[in-house]
Amino acid sequence: MNKGLTAKGRATRQRIVVATALLTREKGAAETTLDDVRAATATSKSQLFHYFPEGRSDILTAVAEYEAGQVLDVQQPFLGDLSTWESWQKWRQAVLDHYIELGQRCPLGSLTTELGKSSAEARAILTTLFTEWEEALFLGVRTLTSAEPEAARIRARSILAAIQGGVVMLQATGVTDYLTAALMTSTDPLRPTAEGTD
Question: pTM, whole model, 2 decimals?
Fold first, then answer.
């Protein structure tokens, strides 16, 4: 989407995307209007349509892409190498710290409950996010436990579902305990295997 834009144009477009992401976290995608975006970014209507020709749907798709990248980026470098129990613990703590800090303004909650429903393009971005995330967890489970592929896939999906459920409850209630319990419970079964190989 940035093809043909100058460096200044790319920076302006990114500024609009980031500001809109913050708006959707605060207000929800359904309640975020183009007027809200214009006010938050001090841009004109013509500027918005220059960078996002399809208007609101284009902006929300760009926000979904941005937020999906944020979800994975904050888990690095741990998500990229879950080969030891220590790396799993560091990854788990990074996830908890991130969502506890953001609370009800977390991008994952916004993605799954709001942005993922805004268009087919946004849904595809969300699907890609979960596929990449699941694959990283799957590889980590396989490396750490030598589990059979099917069992490792089920474990990876259960961890991912635990995070998602905990985040949705966090967004609804503002309480982080659900996420902490879900993440600990879904990953603790990996601990005995890890400790037994030390």
Answer: 0.81
